[in-house]
């Protein structure tokens, strides 16, 4: 079944710090192959659809650093910068407000520090959301897992679980209505907000390369991924 054609948007949330990276710079600004992580991420979306409006959500204190980096690297991918909130929920809500003039379409919410999202993932996520309203990228677990309760642990079936990634794609009117709900501690990502609103979440296959750069070891992997991409 062919997916309906909708205008595409992306809200790229880049509100992280450098604490777990043991870095002074926020992790979205750390360089891989000489270019800040966030720029790599944005280039993936721009390469997928150059006409797609990109909204980048940044902490207010980091906007001047970002503007300086864009100038330094002569970064020309068109985008709108929006100030983040105190929580991810508020940050995504602020990003949605930047699209208030748009009536319909499919919007992706993506972590700014996931720079290895590829065209196949984007095609599947946007296409499934166009058909079903909501699509979330996820991968199977590689390792065994155990449930811990009251000081004891028990093996559970890993086949019953998935590791959730981004992008998480939604029809724009649906995501707007879902984010009109009061914020809840149960909202761990955009899918949980939409699910609480009463809409079913479809899963699409992600990639083990689509990593979220969080620790120094992740930067080593990122450099290796980029090197491999240049060779192929």
What would your notes on this structure say?
The chain starts with 7 loop residues before the first strand and ends with a helix. It is α/β, with parallel strands linked by helices. Helices cover 33% and strands 24% of the residues. The mean pLDDT is 93. The protein has helices at residues 37-48, 63-72, 88-97, 119-132, 172-178, 190-196, 216-231; strands at residues 8-13, 31-32, 35-36, 54-58, 80-83, 106-111, 134-140, 145-149, 152-156, 162-171, 202-205. Strand 4, helix 2 and strand 5 form a beta-alpha-beta unit. It has a seven-stranded mixed sheet, with helices on both faces. It contains seven helices and eleven strands.
Summarize the structure.
The protein has 232 residues and is α/β, with parallel strands linked by helices. It has helices at 37-48, 63-72, 88-97, 119-132, 172-178, 190-196, 216-231, and strands at 8-13, 31-32, 35-36, 54-58, 80-83, 106-111, 134-140, 145-149, 152-156, 162-171, 202-205.
SSE order and pairing:
Layout: E1 8-13, E2 31-32, E3 35-36, H1 37-48, E4 54-58, H2 63-72, E5 80-83, H3 88-97, E6 106-111, H4 119-132, E7 134-140, E8 145-149, E9 152-156, E10 162-171, H5 172-178, H6 190-196, E11 202-205, H7 216-231
Parallel strand pairs: 1-4, 1-6, 4-5, 7-11
Antiparallel strand pairs: 2-3, 6-10, 7-10, 8-9
List keywords for this structure.
single chain, 7-stranded mixed sheet, two-stranded antiparallel ribbon, 24% strand
**What is the average per-residue confidence, as pLDDT, rounded to a whole number?**
93
User: Total number of β-strand segments?
Assistant: 11
The helix-strand sequence is EEEHEHEHEHEEEEHHEH
Q: Which structural class is indicated by helix and strand composition?
A: alpha/beta
Sheet with most strands = 7 strands, mixed
As laid out across the biggest beta sheet, the strand order is 5-4-1-6-10-7-11
Q: Categorize the overall geometry.
A: globular
């Amino acid at each position: 079944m062919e997916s309906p054609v909708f205008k595409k948007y992306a809200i790229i949330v880049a509100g992280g710090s450098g604490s777990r990276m043991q870095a002074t710079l926020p992790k979205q600004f750390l360089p891989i192959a000489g270019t800040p992580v966030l720029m790599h991420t944005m280039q993936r979306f721009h390469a997928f659809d150059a006409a797609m409006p990109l909204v980048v959500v940044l902490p207010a204190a980091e906007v001047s650093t970002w503007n300086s980096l864009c100038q330094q690297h002569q970064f020309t991918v068109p985008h709108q910068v929006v100030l983040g909130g105190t929580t991810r929920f508020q940050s995504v809500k602020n990003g949605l407000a930047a699209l208030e003039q748009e009536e319909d379409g499919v919007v992706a919410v993506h972590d700014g520090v996931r720079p290895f999202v590829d065209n196949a993932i984007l095609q599947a996520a946007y296409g499934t959301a166009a058909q079903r309203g909501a699509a979330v990228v996820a991968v199977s677990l590689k390792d065994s897992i155990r449930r811990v309760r009251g000081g004891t642990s028990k093996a559970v079936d890993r086949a019953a679980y998935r590791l959730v990634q981004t992008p998480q794609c939604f029809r724009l009117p649906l995501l707007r209505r879902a984010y009109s709900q009061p914020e809840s501690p149960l909202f761990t990502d955009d899918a949980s907000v939409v699910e609480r609103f009463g809409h079913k979440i479809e899963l699409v296959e992600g990639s083990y390369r689509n990593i979220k750069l969080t620790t120094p070891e992740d930067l080593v992997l990122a450099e290796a991924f980029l090197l491999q991409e240049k060779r192929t």
